[in-house]
């Protein structure tokens, strides 16, 4: 089996499944549930650097969560592609700040915003399995970034937290050697610490 071709087809299926899912659930209620679950589970202190992602298309909306983190005094950041096929960098985000639009069509903080290294990263995905692996968009940016941040942030350890709708869970899919498993997966229904689920 050609794993890359299989995953390419699986991405198409996952995008279609997510679109269908949004016709059956309330994404705004899901966003608020994830906000509350994150704050209860991690209780981040003032100054904790949390990177997130600006939701595009039908991605999970983490904006209520990062707004709440900002109010708590956390340093919030968004990813930026500065060099193609290299790890992401992160720049500080604050509510109401202006954006630039990347070549991928994603809003990003401009180069005037300070760079930071996350303690916790909220990671987007198309699908996830019980082993903590995520199906992304195929560029490998988050795998490279998670690997790098795990080397940089050892004490306390860096945490990669996938954020998704519960309906994006799949039984399994092929993993490649460079795929980085997540530490946690957060949905509107549960918090999954890899190897242990919390209701």
Which geometry do the CA atoms define? globular
What is the tally of beta strands?
12
For the biggest sheet, the summary is:
8 strands, mixed
CATH architecture: 3-Layer(aba) Sandwich
Individual helix count: 4
CATH class equals: Alpha Beta
CATH topology descriptor: Rossmann fold
Could you list the spans in which at least 5 consecutive residues all have pLDDT below 50? none
Coarse structural class:
alpha/beta
How many domains make up the coordinates? 1
Task: Please report which band the strand proportion falls in: under 5%, 5-15%, 15-25%, 25-35%, 35-45% or over 45%.
Answer: 15-25%
Radius of gyration: 16 Å
The residue-averaged pLDDT reads 92
Q: What tags apply to this protein structure?
A:
single chain, alpha/beta, Rossmann fold, two-stranded antiparallel sheet, 4 helices, globular
